[in-house]
């Protein structure tokens, strides 16, 4: 089990929760589909294949709890669905997203491009930045050639 799994277990334990098979199945579904930005129903469909007894309400409640504990983070792409990805506090910044306005593809931009801007804002405004989320909207490589 990797260090993020151990961090998930620890967060749950410290908050008085157990790492149940249902919670673990949901974490695995998101982890196995890294980069796909699954919504609740997609996570449910994946988990249901291995755990047919699990209900959609359990997935919703578990995702809400996991988000509160910072095991997962939600991503709202303004398309009517909330999507999820695992949060791993490894000291790196969150990645950013490119969202195609035509086909809704989501592309992750690895690396933080805002370090200098953050430092400037913190200095000029005497403001400590603890997090940020950045989304760019446009056309992916496939769609831009269709226009």
UniProtKB/TrEMBL annotation:
Keyword Magnesium carried by entry: no
Pfam families listed in its UniProt record: FUR
Keywords per UniProt: DNA-binding, Repressor, Transcription, Transcription regulation, Zinc
Classification via InterPro entries: FUR, Fur_C, WH-like_DNA-bd_sf, WH_DNA-bd_sf
SUPFAM superfamilies for the chain: Winged helix' DNA-binding domain
Family: Belongs to the Fur family.
Protein name, UniProt field: Transcriptional repressor
């Amino acid at each position: 089990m990797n260090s993020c799994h151990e961090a998930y277990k620890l967060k749950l334990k410290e908050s008085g929760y157990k790492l149940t098979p249902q919670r673990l199945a949901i974490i695995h579904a998101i982890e196995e589909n890294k980069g796909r930005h699954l919504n609740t129903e997609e996570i449910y469909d994946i988990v249901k294949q291995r755990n047919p007894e699990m209900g959609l309400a359990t997935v919703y409640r578990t995702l809400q709890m996991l988000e509160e504990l910072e095991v997962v983070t939600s991503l709202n792409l303004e398309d009517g669905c909330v999507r999820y990805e695992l949060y791993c506090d490894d000291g790196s910044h969150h990645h950013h997203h490119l969202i195609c306005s035509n086909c809704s593809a989501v592309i992750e931009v690895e690396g933080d491009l805002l370090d200098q801007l953050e430092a400037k804002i913190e200095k000029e405004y005497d403001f400590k930045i603890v997090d940020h989320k950045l989304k760019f909207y446009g056309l992916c490589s496939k769609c831009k050639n269709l226009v």
